[in-house]
Design brief:
Structural class: alpha/beta
Number of helices: 7
Helix content: 25-40%
Shape: globular
Number of strands: 8
Order of helices and strands: HEHEHEEEEHEHHEH
Strand content: 15-25%
Radius of gyration: 16 Å
């Protein structure tokens, strides 16, 4: 109705980054799970520099079109078409192929969370990157929304969190995914957050 997705999170996001991103040496926002680019776009509009990660080509393409509409210098926006994890193992990502009315904003990871698309999906393999290997500076806000893989992303940020200041973290938690074999448990995430 008002053109605002997730109004409470949007307001929180604006409050967390607006001042830091309006300074001459603009703050960095890291968006893991860019999706269509809503929070990346919001950050860039507020003057933030952005590093984003999105493994689904269709989602990334839409995000890039959105970001291009801002006319920001390319050095302010860096988008990676890959997954983030503490593991080097190849990750299989599946997403709706566009021929179904299934939620086009989600992706399945290694066979999880893609059951509702039946045979109407596309898949691709990605070699993960680690946040600690890509991000080597202070971060104003780190957003992690990646279909139940959030603990693996956070574990990949171990050196980043030890060596740099990450002012704010917003992450999604999917409790229904944490009980499945091979996926991170709620306790893994809790233990990691206590170490921060």
């Amino acid at each position: 109705e008002r053109g605002v997705l997730e109004p409470a999170i949007t307001a929180l996001w604006q409050g967390l980054v607006k001042e830091a991103c309006s300074k001459p040496n603009s703050a960095l926002v890291v968006d893991v799970g860019v999706n269509w680019g809503y929070y990346s776009l919001l950050s860039s509009q507020l003057g933030c520099r952005l590093i984003g990660f999105e493994p689904v080509p269709l989602f990334l393409e839409v995000a890039m079109v959105n970001m291009a509409s801002l006319n920001k210098p390319k050095r302010h926006i860096k988008l990676y078409n890959t997954v983030v994890s503490n593991s080097n193992s190849v990750v299989n990502i599946c997403y709706p192929d566009g021929s179904t009315s299934a939620n086009m904003g989600t992706a399945g990871v290694n066979g999880y969370n893609d059951w509702h698309w039946e045979n109407k999906k596309k898949c691709g393999n990605h070699t993960p990157v680690s946040l600690s290997n890509v991000i080597r500076e202070d971060v104003c806000l780190l957003k992690v929304d990646c279909e139940g893989m959030e603990p693996f992303v956070m574990l990949s940020a171990d050196d980043l969190l030890k060596n740099y200041h990450v002012s704010n973290v917003i992450l999604e938690y999917s409790p229904f995914l944490s009980n499945r074999p091979g996926l991170p448990t709620k306790q893994m995430l809790v233990d990691f957050l206590h170490r921060m």
